[in-house]
Design brief:
A three-stranded antiparallel β-sheet has the order 1-3-2. A two-stranded antiparallel ribbon has the order 4-5. Helix content is 62%, strand content 10%. It is built from twelve helices and five strands. α5 crosses α6, α5 runs antiparallel to α11 and α8 crosses α9.
């Protein structure tokens, strides 16, 4: 996955750690530790990321200005440098790797991210290209998608390939799919073979999604949408639902 691999290679960060660094950077007086909590019950525990970032000396504890008994997280100088590096490399990788993400699309993505951040919390001091709130949302959206795909015994990568076939509404070669998804042809071929064994695609030299595959895509998308909508409404982001729908189409670029 692009964000994980890029952050890991360039800055020794997971996507989740990158998100937390971005969130911490947007609080001028520090991010109060008492405000760090999972967005919903089955999300990854954010305190695990916090501890790892402390061990890497990328964040440090300071006194919480709003609660003298509590502590807040602030970026260390090393953390500021690491965040800047990760952000730069993710942006470069997205444009270089994905042929369909042109400069205008990239600018639109960044605009959506900043608008969403402002709408959810206008008091944040966002200076980075990718704000912390939408980064966290996108990472959680990926996790939700993985969780729902697993109910059908499928990986999110298999579903992405299947959705891409449906999107083109025609027949594709392995090379065409690999180019669109920015995946190695060998990986795409493995996913297609598994989809063929499940009778979700038809193969006659080229690949196309069959009716059973279309029904599977529809069922998964409906289920992911329902779970995501519940999470959005439960945590007060209903007013940003239109922006979240706009961001959903970019998830492939960020996490393919």
């Amino acid at each position: 996955m692009l964000v994980d691999s890029t952050c890991g290679v360039a800055s020794d960060l997971t996507a989740s750690e990158y998100s937390m660094l971005a969130n911490v950077s947007e609080h001028d007086s520090g991010l109060p530790i008492r405000e760090i909590q999972p967005p919903y019950e089955y999300a990854k525990n954010p305190f695990f990321d916090m501890e790892l970032l402390e061990q890497k000396e990328l964040v440090e504890r300071i006194r919480d200005v709003s609660d003298r008994r509590g502590y807040a997280l602030a970026l260390s100088e090393k953390g500021k440098e690491r965040l800047s590096l990760a952000e730069e490399m993710v942006g470069i990788s997205m444009i270089e790797v994905f042929p369909l993400l042109d400069e205008d699309s990239f600018e639109h993505l960044v605009e959506l991210l900043h608008t969403l951040s402002s709408r959810c919390d206008s008091g944040r001091s966002v200076k980075s290209l990718f704000p912390g709130i939408p980064l966290r949302m996108l990472i959680d959206y990926r996790m939700l998608s993985e969780r729902e795909c697993s109910h059908y015994g499928m990986s999110i990568a298999q579903v992405v390939v299947l959705c891409t076939l449906e999107r083109f509404q025609g027949i594709c070669s392995v090379g065409q799919l690999a180019n669109v998804l920015a995946m190695p042809e060998e990986a795409v071929e493995r996913f297609l073979d598994s989809l063929e064994k499940r009778d979700l695609v038809h193969v006659d030299r080229l690949y196309c999604i069959n009716e059973r595959g279309k029904r599977r895509v529809e069922a998964i998308v409906e289920q992911v949408g329902a779970v995501t909508k519940h999470a959005i409404e439960e945590h007060g982001f209903a007013e940003a639902n239109d922006l979240l729908l706009g961001l959903a189409e970019y998830c492939m670029y960020l996490f393919a």
